[in-house]
Specification:
Radius of gyration: 58 Å
Strand content: 5-15%
Strand order of the largest sheet: 8-9-11-12-13-14-15-16
Distance between the termini: 92 Å
Shape: elongated
Helix content: 55-70%
Number of helices: 21
Largest sheet: 8 strands, mixed, barrel
Number of strands: 17
């Protein structure tokens, strides 16, 4: 059992457990020794006390027998007939035999006694008594007439004299025996006391030895371990209530503090979100991110009085709780001050970094809204501020909008299960020849009540509710199945393009998953275009999106930079030379004939693509004039309603047949 307890213990625990076992063993040995010594001493004392009591009882019996023999001797002398004399002598003889037997046992007890005086007394007294009684017996017989020289009265006087002598001797011997017995008991008590003192001294020495060798080190170790446990408990409690990086209260601590406030007292909540923190943390590293968070925490603490509470509630979120009288204007002014303070550039590890903060505001004025509801309201306003920037005060309409988005997310989940999400395909052609170069898969939702919905109504909600990945999987699976079916039927559709959000492009397993889906239907990576919004990129070679897109390009996928000209990372990303085609945003195409500046910018983008030796495709082409102008500028591909509207997979064969017929007839633009 002990061996099993030792298993799994470290060195310090083994030493502690060894001391515990040593203390337990020593304590058991000490207790056993004390018990054995006490038991033996008390047992011996009880035995001697019992034997002394038996000796006293025997002496009492001898005195009674002596009285009886004196009476029986007198009866012998007073007998009137032979029969009566015979009976008296027989009784006297029997009593004398019993007296001799009792005296013999008393003598044996004296022989066993350890006290010499007791042994001599017990040995001498019975002998003297026996001799006196034998003489009394002889006198009694003589007085009965067997010795006529002795007169009966003289015999009676001699018997009485002997009776007194026997009683006196027995009484004296009994008193001596009682005194000696008392002395024996007292002597044994002194021996027991001496033994007890010796045992106590030994026990004290053993305890001191046990204390020095085992108990004191054990107690010191236990005290040390207890202190460590108390400190660990305090550390755990602090970790549960405070943020480890900044030392600020965490969400749990904040909620507990706010719940202790009077529900009718004023309370303002500012939910502060570091909007660009994730990008900074990704590109500049976690150490820079941690220092930036500490800087933000210190800035917030310096801006507000000590009566206000600053808490870190998420990786890049803080909450400021103001438990003093304020009005909406003051809260807005404080929010602006915080945004401006955090926007000041700061040098961290060789980088000049500025934080972009957005703030949601909620307050309790004259009502009794629970603190938890105010926190939720401020969070709703913060989410809206992330979309619009700056600081936003909570309103009931925001909650209704959030409820609507949640309802849409729930309906999306049901739509996925019911198969209401499907791709619609918009054709892409060569601007010079009209040849089909591919199709772009566009997600649509066949809503049972609202009809066919464009992604504008639901895709942003899907991505923020983690449903976007499931929709992306549906689009990939159904798009490659449709392309494989078209090619099996001889349709000249060489490639399908699919849009991927930045969230999905950060998945390092995306390339392998796409190759698996293509291989499942017998297609190659070159038959899929991965369309990436340029706003999905941030500067930095270690951006996960850049890494994933690079892996896709190396595997043979076409990379289309979608909505080119509307983002901020275009030129930075183009230097990686993984893009196959630029897709010029429709906002430029629809103003080609209206604004010369837009026409020059569009021409510059096409010229950039030619310089980089990649293709340029214009989106949103709706008229023949736009088609001709883009072709004159050198644009390679076209996509838009002038070519073909987005349509389900089942309608593509008919469109291809009609388009090819018009090409053959020299009609380069669809009616």
């Amino acid at each position: 059992m002990v061996g099993r307890l030792d298993m799994g213990l470290n060195g310090e625990d083994r030493r502690l457990w060894g001391r515990v076992r040593m203390a337990m063993l020593a304590t058991l040995l000490m207790c056993g020794a004390l018990f054995a010594a006490g038991y033996l001493s008390l047992g011996q004392m009880a035995t001697e006390h019992r034997e002394s009591a038996e000796d006293v009882a025997r002496m009492e019996r001898l005195r009674l027998l002596a009285d009886s023999m004196a009476d029986e001797a007198a009866a012998v002398h007073s007998a009137r007939g032979p029969a009566q004399a015979f009976l008296a002598r027989e009784t006297l003889t029997s009593t004398l035999a019993e007296f001799a037997s009792t005296a013999s046992r008393l003598l044996q007890s004296g022989e066993r006694s350890g006290d010499p005086a007791v042994r001599v007394m017990l040995r001498a007294s019975p002998t003297h008594l026996a001799d006196a009684l034998i003489e009394a017996h002889a006198l009694a017989v003589t007085a009965n007439g067997r010795s006529p020289g002795i007169e009966r009265p003289a015999a009676r006087r001699a018997a009485k004299k002997l009776q007194r002598l026997v009683r006196r001797r027995i009484d004296g011997a009994l008193e001596d025996l009682i005194a000696l017995t008392k002395r024996r008991v007292e002597a044994r008590s002194r021996d027991v006391q001496a033994s007890a003192k010796t045992i106590a001294v030994l026990a004290l020495l053993l305890f001191i030895l046990l204390w020095r060798l085992s108990l004191r080190p054990l107690l010191e170790t236990m005290e040390k371990r207890t202190g460590a446990l108390i400190q660990a408990k305090a550390d755990v409690e602090r970790a549960l209530l405070f943020d480890g990086l900044t030392g600020l209260p965490n969400r749990r601590n904040l909620v507990e503090r706010l719940e202790r406030l009077d529900p009718a007292s004023p309370l303002g909540i500012l939910h502060i979100d570091l909007a660009g923190f994730h990008a900074i943390n990704t590109t500049l590293g976690w150490e820079t991110g941690e220092r930036l968070v500490r800087y933000a925490a210190d800035t917030l603490v310096d801006l507000v009085p000590r009566t206000d509470v600053v808490a870190r509630v998420n990786t890049d979120s803080f909450v400021l709780a103001i438990s003093r009288e304020t009005d909406p204007e003051q809260l807005h002014e404080l929010a602006v001050e915080i945004i401006e303070a955090l926007a000041q550039p700061i040098a961290i590890l060789g980088h000049n970094v500025a934080l972009e903060a957005v703030i949601g505001i909620a307050a309790r004025r004259g009502g009794r809204e629970p603190a938890a509801k105010l926190l939720a309201n401020a969070d709703i306003a913060r989410a809206r501020a992330r979309e619009e920037g700056g600081s936003i005060y909570f309103s009931t309409a925001m909650r209704e909008r959030l409820a609507a988005r949640r309802q849409t997310a729930q309906e999306l989940l049901q739509a996925i299960v019911r198969g209401e999400i499907e791709p619609y395909f918009q054709p892409q052609i060569d601007a010079a020849t009209g040849e089909i170069t591919g199709v772009e898969a566009l997600v649509r939702w066949k809503h049972p009540q609202r009809g066919l919905l464009n992604p504008h109504f639901f895709l942003d909600i899907a991505e923020k509710s983690q449903i976007g990945r499931r929709i992306s999987d549906i689009m990939v699976r159904r798009s490659v199945e449709a392309l494989a079916e078209w090619q099996a039927n001889g349709l000249p559709v060489p490639r399908v393009g699919i849009n991927f959000s930045a969230q999905i492009l950060r998945d390092p397993e995306l390339c392998d998953r796409l190759k698996f889906d293509l291989d499942r239907v017998g297609l190659e990576p070159a038959q899929m275009s991965v369309e990436v919004l340029e706003t999905a990129f941030v500067q930095g070679d270690d951006d996960p999106v850049i890494i994933t897109v690079g892996a896709l390009a190396e595997a043979g996928f076409h990379i289309d930079l979608d909505d080119f000209g509307t983002g901020h990372a275009s030129l930075s990303y183009l230097r990686h030379q993984t893009v196959s085609r630029l897709k010029i945003d429709r906002s430029f195409v629809r103003e080609l004939h209206l604004r010369p500046r837009i026409r020059k910018m569009t021409a510059a983008m096409i010229q950039l693509a030619q310089t980089l030796e990649i293709e340029a495709l214009a989106e949103g082409v709706e008229t023949e004039a736009e088609w001709r102008l883009l072709h004159e500028m050198g644009c390679n591909g076209l996509q838009g309603f002038a070519i073909g509207k987005p349509m389900p997979a089942a309608e593509i064969p008919a469109w291809v047949a009609e388009h090819e017929s018009r090409r053959a007839g020299g009609q380069i633009v669809a009616a």
